[in-house]
Design a protein that fits this description.
By secondary structure, the chain is an alpha/beta fold. The chain has two domains: 101 residues, HUPs (Rossmann fold); 159 residues, Rossmann fold (3-Layer(aba) Sandwich). The protein contains ten helices and ten strands.
Length: 308
């Protein structure tokens, strides 16, 4: 099929149930955006040696492997078209490592969607999985899609949550979160956290009287400034601002639940916070959410060349 250069939602397909969940999520998003869905499969020969030492010759991809990949992609494409009337879809298979193939295909995409396994972890080991590598080093928005346990009539009440910390990556996440909330007819909850525990620890036996309410008010003004202008672009999106005292990772994880009075259907964060290392470290907010959130998670990157 002919490839487009704009208006693409990319999804990684590997034959797993998690990948099918990701494909269904991406198909709905593509229809809502009027975008083309691109199913991508990386054809990679399995290792031939019994030991992890490097082989003298790299395993070769065969014509049979490529044919099998083409059939798998077509089966998924046919199923998605049957379930989603009007869906524009194309399939791509490339030889190579899955993470590298997905990175190459997603350079100009709106979003790249990958799956998570049934145990609510990223597919594969955290350091080696495609999802983890895309979360850490992807381009644009990378979505870790999980099954939606909500009935269809509850989708519009389930919120899109965005974490805001004043960084450039968080500002990109705000834009993506507004888009998703508007497409889904969902409310948007913008969360900003601050934490006085490190200060108290540093002061030791010389405590400083902290006026928490003054800090709350100041942080709320910062949050309002980060969202300024978006309400004019998306006036239909109801927005709730929350300033919460605590660390960002556990706070956002509490909001990532799909149950309760205010369930969340998608949580959006930037790939790096103000410290500059989020998205690269195992303990970062973006990686923790991608690995442990109950709902789908979008990690938004600035667009630039990446290496895996």
């Amino acid at each position: 099929m002919a490839l487009s250069n704009e208006g693409i939602i990319v999804v990684g397909i590997d034959g797993s149930e998690a990948a099918l969940v990701a494909a269904r999520w991406a198909a709905v998003d593509a229809i809502q955006r009027g975008a083309t869905l691109r199913l991508v499969h990386a054809v990679q020969a399995p290792p031939t040696d019994a030991y992890p030492e490097p082989a003298l010759l790299a395993p070769q991809v065969t014509a049979q492997m490529r044919a099998r990949a083409a059939r798998m992609l077509q089966v998924v494409a046919d199923q998605l078209i049957e379930d989603n009337s009007g869906l524009a879809i194309e399939t791509v298979q490339r030889d190579g490592r899955p993470a590298r193939v997905l990175l190459d295909q997603s350079m100009n995409s709106i979003a790249t969607v990958v799956g998570a396994d049934r145990e609510n972890r990223l597919v594969g080991s955290l350091f080696g999985s495609v999802a983890a590598r895309m979360t850490a080093r992807g381009n644009g928005a990378v979505v870790i899609a999980r099954p939606n346990p909500l009935p269809s009539n509850a989708d519009k009440t389930a919120a899109v949550v965005v974490g805001v910390d004043g960084s450039s990556h968080a500002r990109a996440a705000v834009g993506f979160a507004y888009e998703e909330a508007a497409l889904r007819g969902a409310p948007l909850v913008a969360i900003h956290t601050w934490n006085d525990k490190p200060l108290e620890h540093a002061l030791g036996t010389y405590p400083l009287e902290i006026n928490a309410q003054n800090i709350d008010d100041r942080e709320l003004r910062i949050l309002e400034s980060e969202l300024a202008g978006w309400e004019h672009k998306f006036p239909q999106v109801p927005v709730r601002l929350r300033v919460i005292r605590g660390r960002p990772t556990p706070t956002l994880l509490r909001y990532s639940t799909t149950t309760g009075a205010q369930p969340t259907q998608l949580i959006v964060v930037g790939s790096r916070g103000r410290g500059g290392f989020s998205g690269l470290l195992l303990g970062s907010t973006s990686q923790a959410l991608a690995a442990h959130a109950e709902c789908s998670v979008a990690v938004v990157h600035e667009r630039k060349p990446a290496f895996v």
